[in-house]
Amino acid sequence: MDIGPYFVPFPNLREAITNHVAIKTQARSCTILPNFVGVRFMVHNGKDYVPVTVTQDMVGHKLGEFSHTKKRFTYKATKNK
């Protein structure tokens, strides 16, 4: 049984394309379709919304792949006394 890509129907997609308005979504598992190219999404990462502008290379991936949920670890410099 082959299941197709999971995507959420965005009713305001046409409006977002013509008016360059960002679409707020929490659907991180939504597959990026070719007609999403050029659209700006505000993807929820668990704390706040991260801006993601869709390019041609992102087609076929999930929206959540471009909105990181964890902060990158950085080492703190120690002071030598």
Features:
single chain, 81 residues, mainly beta, 30s Ribosomal Protein S19, Chain A, three-stranded mixed beta sheet, 3 strands, 9% helix, Ribosomal protein S19, Ribosomal_uS19_SF
> Any idea what the shape is?
elongated
CATH second-level architecture of the domain at 13-66: 2-Layer Sandwich
CATH class label of the domain at 13-66:
Alpha Beta
The helix tally amounts to 1
- Radius of gyration from the alpha-carbon trace, in angstroms: 17 Å
Give the termini distance in whole angstroms.
Answer: 66 Å
What structural class do the secondary elements suggest?
mainly beta
Strand order in the sheet with the most strands: 1-2-3
Report on this structure:
By secondary structure, the protein is mainly beta. It has a domain at about 15-65: 30s Ribosomal Protein S19, Chain A. Helices cover about 10% and strands about 15% of the residues. The chain contains 1 helix and 3 strands; from the N terminus they run H-E-E-E. Strands 1-2-3 form a 3-stranded mixed β-sheet, with no helix packed on it. Strand 2 and strand 3 form a beta hairpin. The chain is elongated. The N and C termini lie far apart (about 65 Å). The relative contact order is 0.20. The model has no long low-confidence stretch (mean pLDDT about 90).
Short structural summary:
With 81 residues, this protein is mainly beta.
What's the layout of helices and strands?
Blueprint: H1 13-19, E1 23-25, E2 40-44, E3 49-53
Parallel strand pairs: 1-2
Antiparallel strand pairs: 2-3
